[in-house]
Amino acid sequence: MKYKLISAMALTLGCVANANAYEKIFEWNDPIQGNYPAECSAAKTYGTGGGGPGYIYYYDEFTVNCPLHPTLKVGVEKSWSSSQGNRCDRVTVNNSAYTTSWNDCNNWRVYKK
């Protein structure tokens, strides 16, 4: 049992270390610093939405340009419903070498894997 616990802890720590090994490339709307780093630029380039009684969805797309990285397209999907209120459903990036994370649809990050 002792060895199973130690093995599980090592596996968990390995996964956590791996998840934190990604290099942050860009952050949109950081609560303290705003968009950063300063050498990157990002702009909303597309937006759409729709819905019906009690439900609305939105999709916004941003172009992110950072030195030494390709131009990236970040898609932000959000919705509102009368039963759940506002939700940030997904934040995606168009390049498999990169990934995203988000606090909400107004604060998201792009990482190099």
From TrEMBL:
Upper lineage: Bacteria, Pseudomonadati, Pseudomonadota, Gammaproteobacteria, Cellvibrionales
Organism: Saccharophagus degradans
Cleavable signal peptide: 1-21
Domain of life of the organism encoding this protein: Bacteria
UniProt KW keywords: Signal
Protein name according to UniProt: Uncharacterized protein
This protein's record includes keyword Signal: yes
